[in-house]
Amino acid sequence: MEKITLPKGTKDIGDPEIFIWYHVENIVRKEAAHFHYIELRTPLFEQTELFARGVGEETDIVQKEMYTFLDKGGRSVTLRPEGTAPVMRSYLEQSFHIHNPRMKYFYMGPMFRYERPQAGRMRQFHQFGFEAIGFQSPAADAEIILLADRIYKKIGLKNIRLEINSLGCKKCKPQYLEALKNFLRNQAAQFCRNCSNRIETNPLRVLDCKNASCQNILHSESFPIIQNFLCDDCLTHQNHVIGILESAQIHPVINPYLVRGLDYYIKTTFEMKTEELGAQNAIGGGGRYDNLSDALGVKGIPGVGFAAGMERIILLLQKQSESKAFFQKPFIYLSPLDQQGEDVLLRLSIVLDENSIPFHLDFSDKSLKYHFKNAQRMDASFIIIAGENEYQTKTYTLKNMLSGEQKVVSQTTLIGDLLEAYQNVKNT
Ligand code: AMP
């Protein structure tokens, strides 16, 4: 029979990599709690219309990358490709804009995009994201960026570049789009087919094109820089955001090409990048999306947020840190020699659990040599051996894996000794 394998672009995440995921997830949850962003868990699939209207019909995500299918009731549903539109859908559906309009959310979980898989680009990948809805102030943009920066730093990531741009607002964006279209029209024949099709319908998307020759044309001297078109309001907004960041020792670089692949952004956009992951260099990004609620049928709800890619963060962390530092190891390896040993150690495991001492209980159908090797592989600090003899004498054989010292201890003194040793290990 043919072997069943993982679907392309997906991955099993287990021992030992899962411990790095726990490390990242724990920091995200902790920072969310400190900044009081509350978790929202939205469904993994939504009505297709949400992303078509929210993310934008002209985007790569909607045109090429969505996992869309008809359910058995004939409704078109889509596996979520991103987290912001579902959060806004939930906010509006629950009428927060009427009774409690200022909300701070975070989310964490899998997203789905039908992309060409490669290192750091998956079809099922994971994001965590933060959204501040109902806030107009540029300080909200700065808080989101500051929060992202703090999370990356606490995770232990180094050498991350923050790029920032403004996409203008309803007032000034149209003039910029006109100038951009003129620039693009002049070179229309040289762009790839996809880009030439988008010049009239959605020229900003041309800036996202990954094709090197399109990028070359864009990086010419006559390219219109959006900063020259921003209205006073947008310019003040941008300067205010950058000013707050600078005073927090975060130094963004303005990148006029940074438009991001989703249609809903206005004013601030930003991205965190690394030089160490090759082509998949963005490890997170976001911006202000005051137009998103309009696309979903409720006018004028401001919002700002960011999303970060877990897989890329973990790849980077593996490059920059000693992965072993994140592993959770059993402090004690419990090795039964026979059925009575199993009985003794199973009961001991409950006491260890009550004292919050992590352990690994193996079972008796292997040799002692195997158990020693296994305990070594798991980097356990102690091994406890028990069999018929220990069952009769109410003792355990305890061996310190580091020093090799082995002794027989009574049930009454064991837990006290272990707790002390565990505290010492935790404190070092
Ligand atoms: P986006 O929603 O496209 O702005 O993505 C936000 C972050 O998610 C990016 O900066 C990446 O770190 C990550 N990301 C996006 N698409 C993928 C993917 N296909 N595979 C892995 N990570 C991704």
TrEMBL record:
<dbReference type="GO" id="GO:0004821">
    <property type="term" value="F:histidine-tRNA ligase activity"/>
</dbReference>
<dbReference type="InterPro" id="IPR041715">
    <property type="entry name" value="HisRS-like_core"/>
</dbReference>
<keyword id="KW-0067">ATP-binding</keyword>
<comment type="similarity">
    <text>Belongs to the class-II aminoacyl-tRNA synthetase family.</text>
</comment>
<feature type="binding site">
    <location>
        <position position="127"/>
    </location>
    <ligand>
        <name>L-histidine</name>
    </ligand>
</feature>
<feature type="domain" description="Aminoacyl-transfer RNA synthetases class-II family profile">
    <location>
        <begin position="1"/>
        <end position="336"/>
    </location>
</feature>
<dbReference type="InterPro" id="IPR015807">
    <property type="entry name" value="His-tRNA-ligase"/>
</dbReference>
<dbReference type="GO" id="GO:0005524">
    <property type="term" value="F:ATP binding"/>
</dbReference>
<feature type="binding site">
    <location>
        <begin position="264"/>
        <end position="265"/>
    </location>
    <ligand>
        <name>L-histidine</name>
    </ligand>
</feature>
<dbReference type="InterPro" id="IPR004154">
    <property type="entry name" value="Anticodon-bd"/>
</dbReference>
<feature type="binding site">
    <location>
        <position position="113"/>
    </location>
    <ligand>
        <name>L-histidine</name>
    </ligand>
</feature>
<keyword id="KW-0030">Aminoacyl-tRNA synthetase</keyword>
<dbReference type="GO" id="GO:0005737">
    <property type="term" value="C:cytoplasm"/>
</dbReference>
<keyword id="KW-0547">Nucleotide-binding</keyword>
<protein>
    <recommendedName>
        <fullName>Histidine--tRNA ligase</fullName>
        <ecNumber>6.1.1.21</ecNumber>
    </recommendedName>
</protein>
<dbReference type="GO" id="GO:0006427">
    <property type="term" value="P:histidyl-tRNA aminoacylation"/>
</dbReference>
<dbReference type="Pfam" id="PF13393">
    <property type="entry name" value="tRNA-synt_His"/>
</dbReference>
<dbReference type="InterPro" id="IPR006195">
    <property type="entry name" value="aa-tRNA-synth_II"/>
</dbReference>
<feature type="binding site">
    <location>
        <position position="260"/>
    </location>
    <ligand>
        <name>L-histidine</name>
    </ligand>
</feature>
<feature type="binding site">
    <location>
        <position position="131"/>
    </location>
    <ligand>
        <name>L-histidine</name>
    </ligand>
</feature>
<keyword id="KW-0648">Protein biosynthesis</keyword>
<dbReference type="InterPro" id="IPR004516">
    <property type="entry name" value="HisRS/HisZ"/>
</dbReference>
<keyword id="KW-0436">Ligase</keyword>
<dbReference type="Pfam" id="PF03129">
    <property type="entry name" value="HGTP_anticodon"/>
</dbReference>
<comment type="subunit">
    <text>Homodimer.</text>
</comment>
<dbReference type="InterPro" id="IPR036621">
    <property type="entry name" value="Anticodon-bd_dom_sf"/>
</dbReference>
<keyword id="KW-0963">Cytoplasm</keyword>
<feature type="binding site">
    <location>
        <begin position="82"/>
        <end position="84"/>
    </location>
    <ligand>
        <name>L-histidine</name>
    </ligand>
</feature>
<dbReference type="InterPro" id="IPR045864">
    <property type="entry name" value="aa-tRNA-synth_II/BPL/LPL"/>
</dbReference>
